Amino acid sequence: MLQFVCDYCGNIKQPGETWINGMAAENVGTQAARREVVIEPTWRYERAVLPLAIHFCCIDCKDRYLAKLFDQPAALLEVEEARLTSRGRVVRGKKVPVKAGVQKRTVTSRRARVR
């Protein structure tokens, strides 16, 4: 028997209750980190059982979870080793927490106008 548990408060979903589910993922690369959450419009069992699924018993729990998730910056990836092999480049790294505030950086590109 599967039990769905709220990812914020720990409540257990009872049959017939209306809950919120979605998908959450974090992608940490050598140059950037990205967190992503997609909230589903309706509860779907086939999506709720996926490994990256998140479950909430109410809107308040969803809002608090998202605020906590996006309030802190993602961990940085510190490169420990980079080498070339016959198959390509191999990079080993580890996640390290961000110690200082994160500075937002914007990149703008200039496109040549075609006349």
Head-to-tail CA distance between termini: 66 Å
The chain-level mean pLDDT equals: 80
List the uncertain runs. Answer: none
**Whole-number radius of gyration?**
20 Å
Per DSSP, what share of the residues sits in E-state strands of 2 or more residues?
A: 25-35%
Output the strand order for the largest sheet.
Answer: 2-1-3
Order of helices and strands: EEHEHEE
Task: Specify the biggest β-sheet.
Answer: 3 strands, antiparallel
Number of contiguous helices: 2
Assembly form of the protein: single chain
Global outline: elongated
The secondary structure category is: alpha+beta
Give the helix/strand layout:
Blueprint: E1 20-28, E2 33-39, H1 45-48, E3 53-56, H2 59-71, E4 76-85, E5 88-96
Antiparallel strand pairs: 1-2, 1-3, 4-5
Overview of the structural elements:
By secondary structure, the protein is an alpha+beta fold. The protein has a domain at 20-73. Helix content is 15%, strand content 34%. The chain contains two helices and five strands, in the order ββαβαββ. The protein has helices at residues 45-48, 59-71, and strands at residues 20-28, 33-39, 53-56, 76-85, 88-96. The strands form two sheets. A three-stranded antiparallel beta sheet has the order 2-1-3. A two-stranded antiparallel sheet has the order 4-5. A hairpin with a 4-residue loop joins β1 (20-28) and β2. The longest helix has 13 residues, at 59-71. The radius of gyration is 20 Å and the shape is elongated. The mean pLDDT is 80.
